[in-house]
Every structure is written in structure tokens, then in C-alpha cells.
């Protein structure tokens, strides 16, 4: 694949705020952006062919899945702790506030739960909808699930017990918001941020489901994959087409290429998560390498 050049100019959204307002806001934060990104560690993940999705389990453990139905738990040295067979590809997953693992089974149209005693149960049946992405809210413990059915797509909110609370599918003009919501996260302000590869966009709605903005990259085709947010409310998204990780603020203002092939040598970034120490865990397609970076001080 030919790697597109890194753009030097910026696209901003209509809801973007001014640079001086952003800087003033961040002065109030206890953390700040560091001058450079530092690699902390790197290791190969056993039992997977690539790193399609990664979730933080405990301070020293991760759940990682690949494109071939493998889902494994590993420590930070790359030692496998346990392995689970899934179906439907990718095995997207999330860890709840109670440290249970929740993962989707697209083929069977169910969402499974693995409790601390390693007992696997069917938690939610999604009917005719195939569950793709899933995220457990750090705000209230709700589950946010991206799903598809016969050319339609939506994001559904469930509570901790699996009761359906909300469906988000169209904007206030009746237009479809999603095509393939295959990565999803929640920001500190309650915004639901979805990475949609078919729309080539990051789609952000508020907690009521009202469309706030869609981000479509920086002057070339956008290939959004993994998405997460940090303690400052920034939205981080992998762009596989440019081999970059891009950082936005919560009002859709582009800030920077956090990772790029010229500086960090990153290739085909696909998934990531952020831990409590503000380390960024980045997985890649086509190999099983997981790299950890520090970018907040």
C-alpha cells in the first residue's frame, strides 16, 4: 500500500474553538501535552496474528483480539494468561467497572460476559442486529454498542443489567449517522465517539444522541480504525491510510499527528487504549506487535 504524504495544513470543523481558548482551557488541567512522544516499551502478543482491538483489564493486564477470532489476556511483558475462542471476526471487547470482560459475537448476534470466575454467559441478545463495537462507560457503567443490519447501522445504549435504554441512528434531518460503527468510545463530557470506516469519518453525538460533528481527516482519504479519549478530553483516532494517530479536541479541532511513520515508524495503526498513567497502547494490523507510548506529563 502506498503511504499518502502527511498533510501540513489543517481542516477544522464549524464547532471548533479558537487556539487561545483551547490553550487557556488546558492551563487549568493538571496534565499537559509533552513536547515529544516517548516509547515506553514494545512486545509481541502471543496467540494473535495482529492487534485489532485492545482493552485495559488491570494495571498490568490487557485483553487483545485479532482478525481471526482469537481473544487473549496478556501481561505487559507479552505473557499469555488465558485465551478464548470467539466467532464473527475481531472479537471486539470492553472491560466494565466491575472488571468483567464483555465481548461481541457478530455471527451469533450476542454480547457475552466473562466474570472474574472466568464463567462465560450470554449477556445480551441483539435480535436481528449484528454487534460490532462495544464500550463500557467510565461515567455510569452503561454499554455502548455499534451494530449493523441489512445496510443499516446504529449505536445502542444498554445499562449494567443489559436493559436497552437508547438507540441512535439518524441526525435531526433524518439522515443516517452510521454505516459501519466498528470502534466506539465515550468522552469525559458524555459524547459518544464512533469510528466508521465505511463513512471514512469519526462521528460524534452528545449523550442525548444529537449529532455534534463528523471528522473526515486531513486533506486525503481517511481510514479511521481504533478510537479512544484521554484525561484531557482529546479524541485520539488511528488512520490506517496515512499510518498516523491523530488528536482532536472535544469540539472537533484538529491538534496534531500524535504518531506518524516519519517520527515513530508506526505502520498500519489499528487499535489502542489509554491507562491511568496516561500511557498509550497501540496495536497494528499485519503483525502482533503492541507498542506503549507516553505523551502526557
SSE inventory with pairings:
Layout: H1 19-27, E1 33-44, E2 53-58, E3 61-65, E4 70-75, E5 80-85, E6 93-95, E7 101-105, E8 110-114, E9 120-125, E10 130-136, E11 143-149, E12 152-158, E13 164-168, E14 181-186, E15 192-196, E16 201-205, E17 211-215, E18 224-229, E19 235-239, E20 244-248, E21 254-259, E22 269-274, E23 279-284, E24 289-296
What does this entry look like structurally?
- The chain is mainly β and 297 residues long.
- It has one domain: Neuraminidase (6 Propeller).
- It has 1 helix and 24 strands.
- The strands form 6 sheets. The protein has a 4-stranded antiparallel β-sheet, with no helix packed on it. A 4-stranded antiparallel β-sheet has the order 2-3-4-5, with no helix packed on it. A 4-stranded antiparallel β-sheet has the order 6-7-8-9, with no helix packed on it.
- A hairpin with a 4-residue loop joins strand 15 and strand 16.
- The longest helix is centred in the first third of the chain and has 9 residues.
- The chain is globular, with a radius of gyration of 18 Å.
- The N terminus is likely disordered.
Question: Tags for this entry?
Answer:
single chain; 297 residues; mainly beta; Neuraminidase; 24 strands; 3% helix; 48% strand; disordered N terminus
The tally of helices reads: 1
Strand order of the largest sheet: 1-24-23-22
Determine the N-to-C terminus distance.
Answer: 35 Å
Question: How would you describe the shape?
Answer: globular
The largest sheet is: 4 strands, antiparallel
Mean residue pLDDT: 86
According to CATH, the homologous superfamily is TolB, C-terminal domain
Round the Cα radius of gyration to an integer and report it: 18 Å
Amino acid at each position: 500500500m502506498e503511504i499518502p504524504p502527511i498533510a501540513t495544513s489543517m481542516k477544522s470543523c464549524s464547532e471548533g474553538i479558537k487556539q487561545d481558548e483551547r490553550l487557556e482551557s488546558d492551563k487549568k488541567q493538571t496534565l499537559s501535552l509533552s513536547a515529544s512522544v516517548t516509547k515506553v516499551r514494545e512486545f509481541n502478543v502471543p496467540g494473535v496474528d495482529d492487534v485489532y482491538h485492545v482493552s485495559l483489564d488491570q494495571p498490568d493486564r490487557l485483553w487483545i483480539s485479532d482478525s481471526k477470532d482469537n481473544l487473549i489476556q496478556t501481561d505487559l511483558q507479552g505473557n499469555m494468561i488465558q485465551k478464548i475462542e470467539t466467532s464473527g471476526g475481531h472479537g471486539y471487547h470492553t472491560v466494565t467497572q466491575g472488571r468483567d470482560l464483555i465481548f461481541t459475537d457478530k455471527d451469533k448476534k450476542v454480547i457475552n460476559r466473562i466474570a472474574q470466575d472466568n464463567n462465560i454467559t450470554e449477556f445480551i441478545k441483539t435480535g436481528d442486529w449484528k454487534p460490532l463495537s462495544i464500550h463500557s462507560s467510565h461515567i455510569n457503567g452503561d454499554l455502548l454498542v455499534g451494530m449493523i443490519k441489512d445496510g443499516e447501522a446504529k449505536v445502542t445504549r444498554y445499562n449494567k443489567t443489559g436493559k436497552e435504554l437508547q438507540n441512535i441512528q439518524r441526525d435531526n434531518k433524518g439522515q443516517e449517522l452510521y454505516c459501519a460503527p466498528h470502534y466506539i468510545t465515550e468522552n469525559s463530557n458524555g459524547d459518544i465517539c464512533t469510528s466508521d470506516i465505511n463513512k471514512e469519518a469519526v462521528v460524534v453525538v452528545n449523550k442525548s444522541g444529537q449529532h455534534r460533528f463528523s471528522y473526515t481527516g486531513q486533506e486525503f482519504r481517511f481510514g479511521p480504525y481504533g478510537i479512544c479519549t484521554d484525561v484531557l478530553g482529546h479524541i485520539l483516532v488511528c488512520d490506517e491510510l496515512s499510518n498516523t494517530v491523530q488528536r482532536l479536541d472535544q469540539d472537533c479541532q484538529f491538534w496534531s499527528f500524535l504518531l506518524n511513520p516519519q517520527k515513530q515508524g508506526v505502520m498500519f495503526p489499528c487499535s489502542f487504549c489509554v491507562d491511568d498513567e496516561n500511557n498509550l497502547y497501540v496495536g497494528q494490523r499485519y503483525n502482533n506487535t503492541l507498542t506503549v507510548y507516553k505523551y502526557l506529563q
